[in-house]
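User: My collaborator sent over this chain with a note saying "see what the structure looks like." That's all I know about it. Can you take a look?
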Amino acid sequence: MTLTNFLSVEEVARLSRVTPRTIRRYLSLNKGPVVTRVGGRVFVQRSHFDEWISKNISSRKAKL
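Assistant: Without extra context I'll predict from the sequence alone. Here is the result:
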């Protein structure tokens, strides 16, 4: 197993366009993607990230 298919919390935050603190909060509330711990560090499999994003997309008509 290699870490090439895993994202760090910082990478997840950048891709989600939120801060790493927000991702850590989501994870602590069990509202974030499934994580894998390696040597005490938290990683997210790319496939789990993509699934999480897909499940949490909502489309709303913007009020201008």
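A starting point for your reply to your collaborator: Residues 16 and 49 are 9 Å apart (CA to CA).
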